């Protein structure tokens, strides 16, 4: 009974602190709008209400959240085991390229089979890329922060090479590959927006990740290794697999994010299409406190900020960068809270 009350108190404190962080970010944004805009009240109204004014804006807001859900889940699973995947950008980008290559190389396949193959290949590619960092950590103690980031940086250029070279579409005015066939494209569920059936896939993925972490033995071991790896090892848990496996899972979700973006939104691998997805996934995971179920609303929140900024840009005199400012403030506040809690915990343990 006492432990239940403590958990409820912790949830209340965490919820209030998160609301303060979000409220503080919006307050800073409003102050900036009054400083930068000649029509501040119109800009504020457009920012907060713009995403809900019509089906196109609303549907696209949900659609933009889909890849963030997948990247947020990938980061959450890695963080839960005290592993840090900073290679999300490259994994998303390369996953999208792999999905595109599969669809272009097999244009006559039936739609469902081609979609399954493309998604599977993208997940496998992302998992292998991130898994390498886990293997390096397990075998030689290589810092996964550095290895995942460096591998990702190299992959960005490798993917650009394929988009601008081998797979480049000379008939397009854009730097892109050819379009994938119609049968490989996800079905739209909220026209005229780009929202497609992958929304349900992202929700199912979030629920399955939550079930794995909090309702299975493997998930319990996964979390114990994240809390205290030495304690978990003395408890009989094979901690080595929870160095490698979380990175594989994280990379797989990032690769899936890239594939979903191609099959559901772009239909071709545009140069730089994944810009920001990997880094925003880290912010989404931090807002959700690495809880897979909370990743979904956190991703929607980030997408809402970007959609509101686009609406304000169209209706008033501010630029799209206002969304980056708000996202940066949220990221800063959340990171500061994590560091503060870590310092407090160390002092308490000492």
Short synopsis of the structure:
This protein has 13 helices and no strands. With 350 residues, it is mostly helical.
Model description:
This protein is an all-alpha fold and 350 residues long. It has one domain: ABC transporter involved in vitamin B12 uptake, BtuC (Orthogonal Bundle). 75% of the residues lie in helices and 0% in strands. The protein is built from 13 helices and no strands. It has helices at residues 2-36, 40-49, 55-79, 88-105, 111-140, 144-164, 198-215, 217-227, 229-234, 241-266, 277-287, 292-315, 321-349. Helix 1 (2-36) crosses helix 2, helix 3 (55-79) packs parallel to helix 7 (198-215) and helix 11 (277-287) packs across helix 12. The longest helix has 35 residues, at 2-36. It is globular and about 60 Å long.
How much helical structure, as a percent, in the residues?
A: over 70%
Low-confidence stretches: none
Main beta sheet, described? none
Q: Count of helices?
A: 13
Rg, Cα atoms, Å: 21 Å
């Amino acid at each position: 009974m006492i432990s239940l009350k403590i958990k409820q108190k912790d949830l209340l404190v965490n919820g209030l602190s998160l609301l303060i962080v979000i409220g503080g970010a919006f307050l800073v944004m409003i102050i900036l709008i009054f400083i930068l805009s000649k029509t501040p009240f119109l800009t504020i109204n457009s920012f907060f209400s713009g995403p809900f004014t019509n089906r196109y804006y609303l549907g696209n807001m949900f659609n933009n959240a889909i890849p963030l859900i997948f990247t947020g889940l990938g980061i959450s699973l890695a963080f839960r085991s005290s592993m840090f995947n900073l290679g999300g950008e490259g994994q998303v980008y390369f996953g999208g390229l792999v999905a595109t290559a599969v669809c272009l190389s097999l244009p006559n396949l039936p739609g469902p089979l081609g979609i399954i193959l493309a998604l599977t290949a993208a997940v496998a590619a992302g998992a292998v890329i991130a898994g390498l960092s886990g293997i390096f950590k397990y075998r030689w103690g290589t810092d996964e922060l550095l290895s995942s980031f460096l591998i990702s940086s190299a992959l960005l250029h490798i993917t650009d090479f394929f988009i601008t070279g081998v797979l480049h579409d000379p008939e397009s005015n854009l730097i892109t590959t050819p379009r994938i066939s119609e049968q490989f494209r996800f079905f739209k569920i909220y026209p005229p927006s780009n929202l497609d059936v992958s929304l349900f896939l992202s929700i199912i993925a979030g629920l399955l990740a939550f079930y794995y972490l909090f309702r299975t033995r493997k998930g319990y071991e996964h979390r114990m290794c994240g809390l205290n790896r030495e304690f978990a090892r003395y408890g009989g848990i094979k901690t080595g697999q929870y160095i490698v496996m979380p990175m594989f899972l994280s990379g797989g979700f990032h690769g899936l994010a890239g594939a979903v973006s191609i099959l559901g939104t772009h239909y071709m691998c545009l140069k730089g299409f994944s810009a920001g997805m990997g880094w925003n996934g880290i912010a989404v995971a931090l807002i959700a406190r690495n809880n897979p179920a909370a990743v979904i609303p956190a991703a929607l929140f980030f997408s809402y900020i970007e959609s509101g900024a686009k609406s304000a840009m169209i209706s008033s005199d501010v630029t799209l960068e206002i969304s980056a400012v708000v996202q940066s403030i949220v990221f800063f506040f959340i990171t500061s809270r994590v560091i503060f809690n870590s310092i407090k915990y160390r002092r308490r343990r000492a």
